[in-house]
Amino acid sequence: MDAHFDATAVKQLGLQAVKYVSILLMVFGGVVPYVPQYLQIKRTGNTEGFSQYVCLTLLLANILRILFWFCKHFELPLLAQSFVMIFTMLCMVHIYVRTRQKTILPTDKIRRFIDLESAHFWKWTDFLSYLQFLLLFTVAASCITYPLSDQPVFVELLGFLAVFFEALLARRSSTGI
């Protein structure tokens, strides 16, 4: 009986370990490809081939996914995955902006979000502008979501938009990601 108990306990422990490793892979697996790219940009000071629009797309998709969670709860590891992806994309944007700032000449015009120049959208020269835009987007989307959170059509549309933004990336090559 004692050997059976130990085997059962070991089996349960193994299943728990698999469960937690799976959760960790789910939460952090999506950001793993960005680590080498971040390190390469930091090491070489070269942002060539990097698309800041991939960051924009993933930031918007994950903000919308978090808002969707408030309307229709889904698994917590997927919610955590959104926060981890947002943090990672902010790190990528930060290293991109910091690296690009080193190449700005004194005669170059500083581009900021508050200038509201559509031709320079998401091409700003300071990191704060990216944060300002994301804050504005999040507040605006939250203000729309809160009063409509009990409307099933809106909630499903919100979820669709979150998935749609991520699907936009799947249609492109992975070059530059």
UniProtKB/TrEMBL annotation:
Coiled-coil region: none
GO term, biological process aspect, one: retrograde transport, endosome to Golgi
UniProt entry tagged with the keyword Membrane: yes
Primary localisation category: membrane
InterPro entries: PQ-loop_rpt, SLC66/Scramblase_ANY1
Keywords in alphabetical order: Membrane, Transmembrane, Transmembrane helix
Membrane topology of this protein: Multi-pass membrane protein
This protein's GO CC annotations: cytosol; endosome; membrane; trans-Golgi network
Protein name, per record: PQ-loop repeat-containing protein 1
Provenance organism: Macrostomum lignano
